[in-house]
Specification:
This is Cyclic nucleotide-binding/CBS domain-containing protein. The chain is an alpha+beta fold. The chain folds into three domains: about 120 residues, Jelly Rolls (Sandwich); about 130 residues, CBS-domain (Roll), CATH 3.10.580.10; about 325 residues, no CATH class. It is built from 24 helices and 20 strands. The strands form six sheets. Strands 1-8-3-6 form a four-stranded antiparallel sheet. A four-stranded antiparallel sheet has the order 2-7-4-5, with no helix packed on it.
């Protein structure tokens, strides 16, 4: 074999789908390849022309267009085009133009068809269009950990044991003993006034062994006391289609050991902590429990290595981005909750009720390691600044300083409860949000993109629920605001165009890298938020918002799937590179050098960024902005 053919063969060998081929196939290809050179700006393929060869980019870059002239894709070294035309009547489907001086290998059509017919892996690669390939990429990133792949419903082996709320505690204890269970659901009798089943509920409460010990025996209550007097009525539940890891997080976050399992609005069984532990292979999430056992900020700081180790273990166990994001957000909430508990121990009980808000990625359950703190305080409307604000200012500083100590850096934009602007009574927050929506300005749109992802993590969380309801109601009926928010969501464009496919940072500390948060996940979250607010969704998590948006008819199932897959894949690349940073002893960052990406990551990241680009263009047509102040 001549030196030129050896060079062709070895170059093909480095790039899929040719990297999947045997030496015999590669030798055959190298012997029949023809080479052509195209100057920058010249046409390579014209729509509707006959096509006889598969095109392989040896060097340079190529832009692919749709029939109407819209840019469809950018390709670089080692990538192919023309396959769809060869598969569909031998006519060029997408025109192509050289983005820069480009060298192309022409692979004869008969060889292409032979490979397609005889080599399954080759056929699978070339017949799948970009978004389908991206979906396969995310589908193949499944977890091997049973905790992260097993649905809660699979643990249910019997119907829940129940007792009437009119029964006495002796009867309840006898039933629990007879059925050999450590908890029993308390159900209202049919026809009872206020029966929860008549208003969408399905149970009145729950009694556990611990309740009988603490509330009956320790208090010396008579055994004929009605169970309704000792039951826990504010029952924490889990849905049967949630994963075991989510059930574990709920138990740890709410400090409960038993969870009724719901199918829609009805309980179908109960699980306890021992059920979940039997499925746990590594206790990577028990750092949450350790947080609540600490009695000082210094002790909490000592848990930071455990948080990083938990993150790395989840990534190495192939958890998907939603699982990692939920777990890390739960850890972050737990730090906030316990710091608030410690703060109240130090300062005394709060003078009026309050709700501490998590904002941004923590509120969305999409938090990773490289993050700052965004938070706020909602105070009861009985709040009197002169009498009460000194307490809440001190509490805010205690918590925010504590969060900085355990790794959540101070917000550079001062979006923290230490800022008196973000430490206000409920009615002021309601005025803020209503004004931002009805009279959008550049600053209020920025505020909206931060504060409209909110979650109550401690205190009277019903105040957070009220704010979520107000946002969903006001935004969905204010198209001018949605248009302005949509325009803002187009500001951060995906990094397509350099390094044959990516645009990189031109200067600074992260020169020659791409920021997967600022140019990837963040603009995707912005796009999804606009659709969610338009549909009236109260969900905070981006994946849940997509479900609501499809259900409301604001996005097709296909469009939502594209956005879901793009967000999932970019997030996966981001968290895996952060895990590698930690294992190498480096501080995790959001920036990645494209040269460190595998060909698999490059190809599918480009697909994901193209989905983002298309989604941003769609916003222009879907929502019309009004002028801002």
């Amino acid at each position: 074999m001549q030196a030129e053919q050896l060079d062709i063969r070895e170059h093909l060998r480095r790039h899929p789908p040719f990297s999947l081929l045997s030496d015999d196939w590669l030798n055959t290809l190298a012997s029949r390849v023809e080479v052509a050179y195209f100057r920058a700006g010249s046409t390579i393929l014209q729509a509707g022309d006959p096509i006889e060869d598969l095109h392989y980019i040896r060097s340079g870059g190529v832009e692919i267009y749709r029939h109407e002239g819209e840019l469809y894709n950018r390709l670089g070294e080692g990538e192919i085009f023309g396959q769809l035309g060869l598969l569909m009547k031998g006519m060029v489907r997408f025109p192509a133009r050289a983005l820069e001086d480009t060298l192309i290998y022409f692979i004869p059509g008969d060889l292409f068809r032979a490979l397609f017919d005889q080599v399954g892996s080759f056929a699978t690669f070339v017949e799948i269009e970009d978004r389908t390939r991206l979906r396969q990429a995310t589908a193949n990133e499944g977890s091997r950990n049973e905790l992260m792949t097993t649905r809660v419903g699979r643990l249910i082996t019997r119907a829940p044991v129940t007792v009437s709320e009119r029964a006495d505690i002796r009867t309840a204890a006898a039933i629990m003993t007879e059925q050999n269970v450590s908890s029993v659901l308390v159900v209202p009798e049919s026809g009872d006034e206020g029966d929860p089943r008549t208003t969408g509920g399905a149970m009145a409460g729950i009694i556990t062994d611990r309740d009988l010990r603490r509330r009956v025996v320790a208090q010396g209550l008579p055994y004929d006391t009605p169970v309704r007097d000792i039951m826990s009525s504010d029952v924490v539940t889990v849905q049967d289609d949630q994963y075991l890891f989510e059930a574990l997080l709920i138990m740890l976050r709410e400090n409960v050991h038993h969870l009724p399992v719901m199918h829609r609005l009805k309980p179908i069984g109960l699980i306890d902590l021992s059920d979940i532990i039997s499925h746990e292979t590594q206790n990577s999430l028990f750092v949450v429990r350790n947080i609540f056992h600490q009695q000082s900020v210094e002790a909490l700081q000592a848990l930071v290595p455990e948080v990083k180790a938990s993150f790395v273990r989840m990534v190495n166990e192939d958890a998907n981005s939603h699982m990692v994001g939920s777990a890390m957000a739960t850890i972050g909430r737990s730090f906030k909750q316990h710091l608030l508990q410690l703060g109240e121990q130090k300062l005394g009980p709060p003078p009026v009720p309050y709700c501490f808000l998590a904002l941004g990625s923590m509120a969305r359950d999409e938090q990773y390691l490289r993050t700052d703190q965004d938070n706020a305080l909602v105070l009861d409307d009985s709040f009197v600044p002169a009498e009460h604000d000194a307490y809440f200012e001190a509490l805010a500083h205690f918590v925010c300083d504590g969060l900085a100590t355990v790794g959540y850096t101070y917000c550079k934009g001062d979006i923290m409860a230490t800022n008196p602007t973000w430490r206000q009574p409920l009615h002021v927050w309601q005025h803020y949000f209503t004004d931002w929506i009805r009279r959008p300005s550049a600053q209020s749109l920025l505020n909206s993109s931060i504060f409209f992802d909110l979650d109550g993590v401690h205190g009277d969380t019903h105040m957070a629920d009220q704010l979520q309801a107000l946002i969903a109601d006001e935004a969905s009926k204010t198209p001018g605001f949605l248009g302005c928010l949509a325009r803002n969501a187009q500001n951060r464009t995906p990094p397509l165009g350099f390094f044959k496919d990516f645009v990189v940072e031109k200067s600074g500390r992260h020169r020659n890298s791409i920021n997967l948060k600022r140019r990837g996940t963040a603009p995707l979250v912005d796009v999804i938020r606009v659709h969610a607010l338009a549909s009236g969704s109260r969900a905070q998590n981006s994946f849940r918002r997509l479900e609501d948006t499809v259900a409301a008819g604001f996005l097709t199932a296909q469009a939502a799937s594209d956005l879901r897959d793009a967000l999932e894949f970019i997030s996966l690349v981001r968290i895996r590179h952060q895990a590698r940073d930690i294992e190498a002893g480096r501080e995790p960052v959001n920036n990645i050098d494209p040269e460190q990406l595998s060909s698999f990551e490059r190809r599918n990241l480009k697909d994901a960024f193209q989905v983002l680009s298309n989604a941003q263009r769609f916003l222009k047509f879907r929502y019309r902005p009004q002028s801002t102040r």
